[in-house]
Design goal:
238 residues; mainly beta; Jelly Rolls; 7-stranded mixed β-sheet; 14 strands; disordered N terminus
Length: 238
């Protein structure tokens, strides 16, 4: 059962602490990926990498994300200490992956996701998960984040549902769109970061931690399927 911390309280705390919204570089620049973004894969990754390519769709400069039995994220790491308030973007699903099911390891794939990783203090992480995270950091040689919130285009999950990642509760999903949303249609999103983080991680965090990374991605390594999506105009706003 989640702690009694309300979304409103956490959003208020975040708003009081946050300064100007951090700037995000464009996802694409002409025929190239935007400066400041890099493709990030799993340590010693075996599946192929998800493909990220610029593509104009309906007159919009967009990032095309194609997963084919693959895994990968496109990451941007802002200056330390950022506390974003609102996150906006537009996205469309061109090819869904009907085998995806976030509640199961065998189906833990997303056709499109927008993620924020936070510097949650290890003291806030439950002991067993803290040990696993420390082991993962030691084995990978990377300072893996303790809290990542992903807004996802799901499948059979209900809109608004919060789902723990099937492999690690250090990643939690908030389902914004699902199989009922029309394929090929652009949809606009505007999210209150503090309120959504409270919904997902309110059992552990008393305030919004500093931002570590912004990511967009898709994967189909667990289902062996394929999906195609586009993301455009990703930005923070006050």
């Amino acid at each position: 059962m989640r702690a009694a911390l309300t979304a409103g309280a956490l959003a208020t705390a975040a708003g009081a602490a946050a300064g100007a919204a951090p700037a995000l570089p464009p996802l694409v620049s002409g025929a190239s990926l935007g400066a400041g973004w890099r493709v990030a894969l799993l340590p010693a990754q075996q599946p192929p990498a998800t493909r990220f390519t610029p593509e104009a769709v309906d007159g919009r400069a967009a990032l095309r994300i194609e997963a084919a039995a693959s895994y990968g994220n496109l990451l941007h790491e802002p200056p330390p200490g950022a506390l974003p308030r609102r996150l906006h973007w537009s996205w469309r699903l061109a090819v869904p992956n009907p085998a995806a099911d976030l509640r199961q390891k065998a189906g833990d794939d997303t056709a499109a996701k927008v993620c924020l990783s936070f510097d949650l203090p290890l003291s806030r992480v439950p002991f067993g998960e803290r040990v696993l995270l420390q082991l993962a950091r030691a084995r990978s040689g990377e300072e893996l984040p303790a809290a990542t919130l992903c807004w996802v285009w799901g499948g059979s999950e209900a809109r608004g549902e919060v789902v723990d990642n099937a492999y690690s509760r250090r990643v939690r999903y908030l389902v914004l769109r699902n199989a009922d949303d029309r394929t090929g249609a652009w949809l606009d999103e505007a999210r209150d970061v503090g309120a959504d983080f409270a919904r997902a991680f309110g059992d552990e965090a008393g305030a919004l931690p500093p931002l570590r990374a912004v990511g967009v991605g898709a994967d189909a390594d667990n289902t062996g399927g394929r999906s195609v999506a586009h993301v455009s105009a990703l930005r923070f706003e006050p």
